[in-house]
Design a protein that fits this description.
With about 400 residues, the chain is of the alpha/beta class. The chain has 11 helices and 16 strands. The strands form 3 sheets. Strands 8-7-9-10-11-15-16 form a 7-stranded mixed beta sheet, sandwiched between helices. Strands 2-3-1-4-5-6 form a 6-stranded mixed beta sheet. Helix 7 crosses helix 8 and helix 10 crosses helix 11. The longest helix is centred in the first third of the chain and has 20 residues. The chain is globular and about 65 Å long.
Protein backbone atom coordinates (compact mmCIF):
# COMPACT_ATOMS: atom_id res chain seq x y z
CA UNK A 1 0.00 0.00 0.00
CA UNK A 2 2.88 2.36 0.72
CA UNK A 3 4.14 1.76 -2.81
CA UNK A 4 0.67 2.55 -4.17
CA UNK A 5 0.57 5.83 -2.26
CA UNK A 6 4.03 6.73 -3.56
CA UNK A 7 2.97 6.13 -7.15
CA UNK A 8 -0.12 8.30 -6.81
CA UNK A 9 1.86 11.01 -5.04
CA UNK A 10 4.52 10.90 -7.75
CA UNK A 11 1.79 11.51 -10.35
CA UNK A 12 0.46 14.44 -8.32
CA UNK A 13 3.90 16.00 -8.03
CA UNK A 14 4.45 15.54 -11.75
CA UNK A 15 1.21 17.42 -12.35
CA UNK A 16 2.46 20.30 -10.23
CA UNK A 17 5.81 20.27 -12.02
CA UNK A 18 4.01 20.43 -15.37
CA UNK A 19 2.16 23.49 -14.18
CA UNK A 20 5.43 25.04 -13.09
CA UNK A 21 6.98 24.54 -16.52
CA UNK A 22 4.29 26.74 -18.05
CA UNK A 23 4.93 29.78 -15.84
CA UNK A 24 5.53 33.09 -17.54
CA UNK A 25 6.38 35.42 -14.65
CA UNK A 26 9.31 37.82 -15.01
CA UNK A 27 11.34 37.75 -11.79
CA UNK A 28 14.07 40.09 -13.04
CA UNK A 29 12.11 43.25 -12.23
CA UNK A 30 12.38 43.80 -8.46
CA UNK A 31 8.89 45.38 -8.38
CA UNK A 32 6.88 44.71 -11.55
CA UNK A 33 4.07 47.24 -11.92
CA UNK A 34 0.78 46.90 -13.74
CA UNK A 35 -0.63 49.49 -16.13
CA UNK A 36 -2.77 52.26 -14.62
CA UNK A 37 -6.51 52.34 -15.05
CA UNK A 38 -8.23 48.94 -15.16
CA UNK A 39 -6.80 45.85 -13.48
CA UNK A 40 -8.03 42.29 -13.89
CA UNK A 41 -8.88 39.86 -11.12
CA UNK A 42 -9.21 36.30 -12.42
CA UNK A 43 -11.52 33.82 -10.72
CA UNK A 44 -11.18 30.05 -11.29
CA UNK A 45 -14.26 28.08 -10.19
CA UNK A 46 -16.01 24.91 -11.40
CA UNK A 47 -19.24 25.29 -13.36
CA UNK A 48 -19.77 21.51 -13.38
CA UNK A 49 -19.49 18.62 -10.99
CA UNK A 50 -19.73 18.16 -7.24
CA UNK A 51 -19.01 21.73 -6.21
CA UNK A 52 -20.76 23.68 -8.97
CA UNK A 53 -23.49 24.89 -6.60
CA UNK A 54 -20.92 26.07 -4.05
CA UNK A 55 -19.01 27.81 -6.83
CA UNK A 56 -22.13 29.68 -7.92
CA UNK A 57 -22.51 31.03 -4.38
CA UNK A 58 -18.81 31.96 -4.12
CA UNK A 59 -19.11 33.83 -7.41
CA UNK A 60 -22.17 35.74 -6.20
CA UNK A 61 -20.47 36.67 -2.94
CA UNK A 62 -17.35 37.92 -4.72
CA UNK A 63 -19.39 40.05 -7.11
CA UNK A 64 -21.37 41.54 -4.26
CA UNK A 65 -18.15 42.60 -2.52
CA UNK A 66 -16.90 44.17 -5.75
CA UNK A 67 -20.21 45.97 -6.32
CA UNK A 68 -20.08 47.40 -2.80
CA UNK A 69 -16.77 49.04 -3.68
CA UNK A 70 -18.18 50.49 -6.90
CA UNK A 71 -16.01 48.10 -8.92
CA UNK A 72 -12.84 49.77 -7.67
CA UNK A 73 -9.84 49.19 -5.43
CA UNK A 74 -8.22 52.48 -4.55
CA UNK A 75 -7.61 54.39 -7.78
CA UNK A 76 -8.00 51.27 -9.95
CA UNK A 77 -11.08 50.03 -11.72
CA UNK A 78 -11.37 46.25 -11.28
CA UNK A 79 -12.66 43.84 -13.87
CA UNK A 80 -13.56 40.34 -12.65
CA UNK A 81 -13.00 37.53 -15.14
CA UNK A 82 -14.37 34.09 -14.30
CA UNK A 83 -12.89 30.91 -15.77
CA UNK A 84 -14.23 27.35 -15.53
CA UNK A 85 -12.07 24.78 -13.72
CA UNK A 86 -14.13 21.65 -14.45
CA UNK A 87 -15.14 19.79 -17.59
CA UNK A 88 -18.75 18.86 -18.33
CA UNK A 89 -19.47 15.37 -17.09
CA UNK A 90 -16.55 15.38 -14.64
CA UNK A 91 -17.13 15.41 -10.89
CA UNK A 92 -14.12 17.46 -9.77
CA UNK A 93 -11.69 20.02 -11.18
CA UNK A 94 -9.66 19.28 -14.28
CA UNK A 95 -5.86 19.79 -14.00
CA UNK A 96 -5.54 20.93 -17.61
CA UNK A 97 -8.19 23.62 -17.20
CA UNK A 98 -6.77 24.80 -13.89
CA UNK A 99 -3.29 25.12 -15.38
CA UNK A 100 -4.68 26.97 -18.41
CA UNK A 101 -6.58 29.34 -16.13
CA UNK A 102 -3.48 30.16 -14.12
CA UNK A 103 -1.39 30.64 -17.25
CA UNK A 104 -3.99 32.95 -18.76
CA UNK A 105 -3.80 35.15 -15.68
CA UNK A 106 0.00 34.98 -15.60
CA UNK A 107 0.26 36.15 -19.23
CA UNK A 108 -2.01 39.15 -18.71
CA UNK A 109 0.00 42.31 -17.84
CA UNK A 110 -3.16 43.81 -16.34
CA UNK A 111 -3.77 40.85 -14.02
CA UNK A 112 -3.34 41.74 -10.36
CA UNK A 113 -4.85 38.80 -8.43
CA UNK A 114 -6.28 35.31 -8.83
CA UNK A 115 -9.28 34.10 -6.82
CA UNK A 116 -9.28 30.30 -6.62
CA UNK A 117 -9.22 27.40 -6.42
CA UNK A 118 -12.36 26.20 -4.73
CA UNK A 119 -10.94 23.05 -3.16
CA UNK A 120 -9.82 19.42 -3.37
CA UNK A 121 -6.20 20.41 -3.92
CA UNK A 122 -6.65 22.23 -7.24
CA UNK A 123 -4.43 25.07 -6.02
CA UNK A 124 -1.50 22.66 -6.17
CA UNK A 125 -1.64 23.14 -9.95
CA UNK A 126 -2.36 26.87 -10.20
CA UNK A 127 -0.24 28.20 -7.34
CA UNK A 128 3.22 27.57 -8.86
CA UNK A 129 2.07 29.47 -11.96
CA UNK A 130 0.57 32.45 -10.16
CA UNK A 131 3.47 32.63 -7.72
CA UNK A 132 6.02 32.70 -10.53
CA UNK A 133 4.09 35.65 -11.97
CA UNK A 134 3.99 37.41 -8.56
CA UNK A 135 0.19 37.26 -8.50
CA UNK A 136 -1.67 37.16 -5.23
CA UNK A 137 -3.83 34.03 -5.04
CA UNK A 138 -6.69 33.85 -2.55
CA UNK A 139 -8.64 30.61 -2.16
CA UNK A 140 -12.02 30.62 -0.43
CA UNK A 141 -11.39 27.17 1.03
CA UNK A 142 -8.80 24.95 -0.62
CA UNK A 143 -7.73 23.07 2.50
CA UNK A 144 -4.71 21.16 1.12
CA UNK A 145 -2.19 21.36 3.98
CA UNK A 146 0.96 21.37 1.86
CA UNK A 147 0.02 24.69 0.23
CA UNK A 148 1.10 26.52 3.38
CA UNK A 149 3.07 24.09 5.57
CA UNK A 150 4.81 20.72 5.54
CA UNK A 151 2.18 18.09 6.33
CA UNK A 152 3.06 15.06 8.43
CA UNK A 153 3.44 11.78 6.62
CA UNK A 154 5.10 10.68 3.39
CA UNK A 155 3.02 12.94 1.12
CA UNK A 156 4.54 16.13 2.51
CA UNK A 157 8.03 15.90 1.06
CA UNK A 158 9.11 19.09 -0.69
CA UNK A 159 6.11 21.09 0.54
CA UNK A 160 5.32 23.89 0.67
CA UNK A 161 8.45 25.13 -1.15
CA UNK A 162 7.53 23.31 -4.36
CA UNK A 163 4.55 25.63 -4.81
CA UNK A 164 6.58 28.85 -4.50
CA UNK A 165 9.24 29.07 -7.25
CA UNK A 166 9.92 32.72 -6.36
CA UNK A 167 10.67 31.79 -2.75
CA UNK A 168 8.00 34.29 -1.61
CA UNK A 169 4.57 33.45 -0.23
CA UNK A 170 1.65 34.69 -2.32
CA UNK A 171 -1.27 32.47 -1.27
CA UNK A 172 -3.98 32.95 1.34
CA UNK A 173 -6.84 30.58 2.13
CA UNK A 174 -9.80 31.44 4.34
CA UNK A 175 -10.49 27.99 5.80
CA UNK A 176 -8.59 25.72 8.18
CA UNK A 177 -6.23 23.22 6.59
CA UNK A 178 -6.73 19.50 6.18
CA UNK A 179 -4.39 18.94 9.10
CA UNK A 180 -6.86 20.74 11.36
CA UNK A 181 -9.55 18.38 10.08
CA UNK A 182 -7.31 15.35 10.59
CA UNK A 183 -6.58 16.31 14.20
CA UNK A 184 -10.32 16.72 14.85
CA UNK A 185 -11.05 13.30 13.35
CA UNK A 186 -8.29 11.63 15.38
CA UNK A 187 -9.71 13.20 18.52
CA UNK A 188 -13.12 11.80 17.56
CA UNK A 189 -11.54 8.36 17.22
CA UNK A 190 -10.28 8.73 20.77
CA UNK A 191 -13.72 9.60 22.14
CA UNK A 192 -15.23 6.64 20.29
CA UNK A 193 -12.59 4.31 21.75
CA UNK A 194 -11.19 3.35 18.36
CA UNK A 195 -8.08 1.20 18.77
CA UNK A 196 -7.96 -0.21 15.22
CA UNK A 197 -8.84 1.79 12.13
CA UNK A 198 -8.89 0.91 8.43
CA UNK A 199 -8.03 3.64 5.94
CA UNK A 200 -9.66 4.01 2.51
CA UNK A 201 -8.66 6.80 0.13
CA UNK A 202 -9.75 8.20 -3.20
CA UNK A 203 -7.38 9.39 -5.92
CA UNK A 204 -5.47 12.61 -6.51
CA UNK A 205 -3.21 14.86 -4.49
CA UNK A 206 -5.96 15.83 -2.03
CA UNK A 207 -6.90 12.25 -1.10
CA UNK A 208 -3.31 10.99 -0.97
CA UNK A 209 -2.15 13.83 1.26
CA UNK A 210 -5.17 13.61 3.56
CA UNK A 211 -4.75 9.86 3.97
CA UNK A 212 -1.04 10.23 4.69
CA UNK A 213 -1.69 12.80 7.40
CA UNK A 214 -4.47 10.76 8.94
CA UNK A 215 -2.36 7.62 9.12
CA UNK A 216 0.54 9.48 10.76
CA UNK A 217 -1.62 11.32 13.28
CA UNK A 218 -3.63 8.20 14.18
CA UNK A 219 -0.49 6.20 14.88
CA UNK A 220 0.93 9.01 16.98
CA UNK A 221 -2.26 9.00 19.03
CA UNK A 222 -1.93 5.26 19.65
CA UNK A 223 -4.51 4.07 17.11
CA UNK A 224 -3.38 1.16 14.99
CA UNK A 225 -3.91 1.46 11.22
CA UNK A 226 -4.74 -2.15 10.39
CA UNK A 227 -5.26 -1.75 6.63
CA UNK A 228 -5.07 0.76 3.81
CA UNK A 229 -6.84 0.62 0.46
CA UNK A 230 -7.23 2.90 -2.53
CA UNK A 231 -10.75 3.11 -3.93
CA UNK A 232 -10.37 2.96 -7.71
CA UNK A 233 -12.90 3.46 -10.51
CA UNK A 234 -13.30 -0.22 -11.34
CA UNK A 235 -16.85 -1.64 -11.17
CA UNK A 236 -17.27 -3.54 -7.95
CA UNK A 237 -14.25 -1.89 -6.26
CA UNK A 238 -16.32 -0.54 -3.38
CA UNK A 239 -17.96 -3.90 -2.70
CA UNK A 240 -14.60 -5.66 -2.79
CA UNK A 241 -13.13 -3.22 -0.28
CA UNK A 242 -16.18 -3.53 1.98
CA UNK A 243 -15.82 -7.33 1.97
CA UNK A 244 -12.13 -7.05 2.86
CA UNK A 245 -12.90 -4.64 5.67
CA UNK A 246 -15.57 -6.92 7.10
CA UNK A 247 -12.98 -9.70 7.28
CA UNK A 248 -10.50 -7.38 9.04
CA UNK A 249 -13.07 -6.05 11.51
CA UNK A 250 -11.69 -2.57 12.40
CA UNK A 251 -13.27 -0.44 15.12
CA UNK A 252 -13.79 2.35 12.57
CA UNK A 253 -13.17 3.20 8.92
CA UNK A 254 -11.51 6.46 7.86
CA UNK A 255 -12.25 7.73 4.36
CA UNK A 256 -10.09 10.31 2.56
CA UNK A 257 -11.75 11.54 -0.60
CA UNK A 258 -14.54 13.53 -2.19
CA UNK A 259 -18.24 12.79 -2.03
CA UNK A 260 -18.24 11.45 -5.57
CA UNK A 261 -19.74 8.29 -7.09
CA UNK A 262 -17.03 6.17 -5.50
CA UNK A 263 -17.88 7.46 -2.05
CA UNK A 264 -21.56 6.80 -2.69
CA UNK A 265 -20.74 3.24 -3.73
CA UNK A 266 -18.47 2.69 -0.72
CA UNK A 267 -20.97 3.94 1.84
CA UNK A 268 -23.68 1.85 0.22
CA UNK A 269 -21.50 -1.28 0.32
CA UNK A 270 -20.54 -0.63 3.93
CA UNK A 271 -24.20 -0.16 4.88
CA UNK A 272 -24.79 -3.75 3.73
CA UNK A 273 -21.67 -5.41 5.13
CA UNK A 274 -20.67 -3.28 8.16
CA UNK A 275 -23.71 -1.15 9.09
CA UNK A 276 -22.63 -0.59 12.70
CA UNK A 277 -18.97 0.33 12.05
CA UNK A 278 -18.43 4.12 12.25
CA UNK A 279 -17.07 5.90 9.19
CA UNK A 280 -15.05 9.09 9.73
CA UNK A 281 -14.33 11.05 6.58
CA UNK A 282 -12.77 14.22 5.25
CA UNK A 283 -14.94 17.30 4.79
CA UNK A 284 -14.91 16.66 1.03
CA UNK A 285 -17.61 14.06 1.71
CA UNK A 286 -19.99 17.00 2.21
CA UNK A 287 -19.48 18.07 -1.41
CA UNK A 288 -22.33 16.31 -3.19
CA UNK A 289 -24.44 16.95 -6.24
CA UNK A 290 -27.11 15.75 -5.76
CA UNK A 291 -26.67 16.27 -2.06
CA UNK A 292 -28.24 13.14 -0.60
CA UNK A 293 -26.45 9.85 0.01
CA UNK A 294 -28.87 7.00 -0.75
CA UNK A 295 -27.41 4.49 1.76
CA UNK A 296 -24.76 4.56 4.49
CA UNK A 297 -23.77 2.96 7.81
CA UNK A 298 -25.47 4.16 10.98
CA UNK A 299 -22.66 6.56 11.89
CA UNK A 300 -20.87 8.64 9.24
CA UNK A 301 -19.14 11.76 10.54
CA UNK A 302 -16.82 14.49 9.37
CA UNK A 303 -15.88 18.05 10.27
CA UNK A 304 -16.53 21.07 8.07
CA UNK A 305 -15.39 24.68 7.90
CA UNK A 306 -18.38 25.90 5.86
CA UNK A 307 -21.10 25.91 8.48
CA UNK A 308 -24.88 26.05 8.16
CA UNK A 309 -26.05 29.65 7.72
CA UNK A 310 -27.59 29.77 11.20
CA UNK A 311 -24.18 29.16 12.80
CA UNK A 312 -22.71 32.48 11.58
CA UNK A 313 -23.11 35.95 13.14
CA UNK A 314 -26.11 38.13 12.34
CA UNK A 315 -24.07 40.10 9.78
CA UNK A 316 -23.70 36.95 7.72
CA UNK A 317 -27.43 36.38 7.75
CA UNK A 318 -28.06 39.91 6.52
CA UNK A 319 -25.53 39.49 3.72
CA UNK A 320 -27.08 36.19 2.62
CA UNK A 321 -30.52 37.78 2.63
CA UNK A 322 -29.23 40.52 0.34
CA UNK A 323 -27.90 37.88 -2.02
CA UNK A 324 -31.22 36.06 -1.89
CA UNK A 325 -32.99 39.21 -3.04
CA UNK A 326 -30.47 40.19 -5.71
CA UNK A 327 -29.16 36.86 -7.01
CA UNK A 328 -31.73 34.26 -5.98
CA UNK A 329 -31.90 31.52 -3.38
CA UNK A 330 -29.25 29.40 -5.11
CA UNK A 331 -26.64 32.11 -4.46
CA UNK A 332 -27.58 32.63 -0.81
CA UNK A 333 -25.55 29.71 0.49
CA UNK A 334 -22.93 29.96 3.25
CA UNK A 335 -20.16 29.49 0.65
CA UNK A 336 -21.04 32.97 -0.61
CA UNK A 337 -19.56 34.38 2.59
CA UNK A 338 -16.16 32.98 1.59
CA UNK A 339 -16.39 34.46 -1.89
CA UNK A 340 -17.38 37.80 -0.40
CA UNK A 341 -14.50 37.91 2.07
CA UNK A 342 -11.99 36.60 -0.50
CA UNK A 343 -12.82 39.52 -2.77
CA UNK A 344 -12.69 42.02 0.10
CA UNK A 345 -9.21 40.80 1.01
CA UNK A 346 -8.11 41.06 -2.63
CA UNK A 347 -9.48 44.59 -3.04
CA UNK A 348 -7.91 45.82 0.18
CA UNK A 349 -4.56 44.35 -0.85
CA UNK A 350 -4.76 45.97 -4.31
CA UNK A 351 -5.52 49.34 -2.77
CA UNK A 352 -2.74 49.11 -0.19
CA UNK A 353 -0.26 47.64 -2.67
CA UNK A 354 -1.07 50.37 -5.21
CA UNK A 355 -1.47 47.92 -8.04
CA UNK A 356 2.05 46.48 -7.82
CA UNK A 357 1.95 42.72 -7.83
CA UNK A 358 4.54 41.92 -5.17
CA UNK A 359 3.26 44.68 -2.95
CA UNK A 360 -0.32 43.42 -3.33
CA UNK A 361 0.68 39.89 -2.35
CA UNK A 362 2.74 41.17 0.59
CA UNK A 363 -0.18 43.28 1.74
CA UNK A 364 -2.56 40.32 1.80
CA UNK A 365 -0.05 38.12 3.64
CA UNK A 366 0.49 40.91 6.16
CA UNK A 367 -3.18 41.76 6.61
CA UNK A 368 -3.18 40.56 10.22
CA UNK A 369 -6.48 40.81 12.08
CA UNK A 370 -9.61 41.34 10.00
CA UNK A 371 -13.32 41.43 10.60
CA UNK A 372 -15.75 39.74 8.25
CA UNK A 373 -19.41 38.69 8.19
CA UNK A 374 -18.17 35.24 9.22
CA UNK A 375 -16.53 36.73 12.30
CA UNK A 376 -13.01 37.94 13.10
CA UNK A 377 -9.95 36.14 11.76
CA UNK A 378 -6.23 36.72 11.37
CA UNK A 379 -4.06 36.16 8.30
CA UNK A 380 -0.72 34.56 9.13
CA UNK A 381 2.43 35.18 7.07
CA UNK A 382 2.23 31.54 5.92
CA UNK A 383 -1.11 32.18 4.19
CA UNK A 384 -3.15 30.30 6.78
CA UNK A 385 -5.78 32.03 8.87
CA UNK A 386 -6.81 31.68 12.49
CA UNK A 387 -10.35 32.09 13.64
CA UNK A 388 -12.56 30.03 11.29
CA UNK A 389 -14.22 27.24 13.28
CA UNK A 390 -14.65 23.58 12.46
CA UNK A 391 -17.98 21.93 13.19
CA UNK A 392 -18.70 18.23 13.64
CA UNK A 393 -21.11 17.01 10.98
CA UNK A 394 -23.05 13.76 10.88
CA UNK A 395 -24.93 12.03 8.10
CA UNK A 396 -28.65 12.00 8.88
CA UNK A 397 -31.29 10.84 6.40
CA UNK A 398 -28.70 11.03 3.65
CA UNK A 399 -27.52 14.60 4.38
CA UNK A 400 -24.79 16.05 6.57
CA UNK A 401 -26.10 18.15 9.45
CA UNK A 402 -24.45 19.53 12.62
CA UNK A 403 -23.74 16.55 14.84
CA UNK A 404 -25.90 17.85 17.64
CA UNK A 405 -28.83 17.88 15.22
CA UNK A 406 -28.40 14.26 14.22
CA UNK A 407 -30.26 11.43 15.96
Amino acid sequence: MILEYRLVLRAALLMAATALSGCLGDDTDPAPSTPPGTLNVYMSLPSHGLTADEARAVDAGARLALDERGGRAGRFRIRLLRMDSALPGRQIWDPGLVQANAERAAKDPRAIAYLGELGLGASAVSLPVTNDADLLQVSPYDTLTSLTRTPPGRAGRGAPDRYYPTGRRSFVRLAPSDLDEVDALVERMRTLGVGRVSLVSGEGVYAVEFASQLAQRARRAGTRVVSSAALGPEPGAARAIASELRAIGPDAIAYAGAGDRRAVALLSALSERMPETPVLGSSALIARRPLRYPAAPAVVETVGSVLPAAEYPAAAGRLLERLRRTSGAAAARPEALYGYESMRLVLDAISEGRGRRRAVAASALGAGERRSPMGPYEVRPTGDVTGPPLMSMRLSNGRFVPARGAP
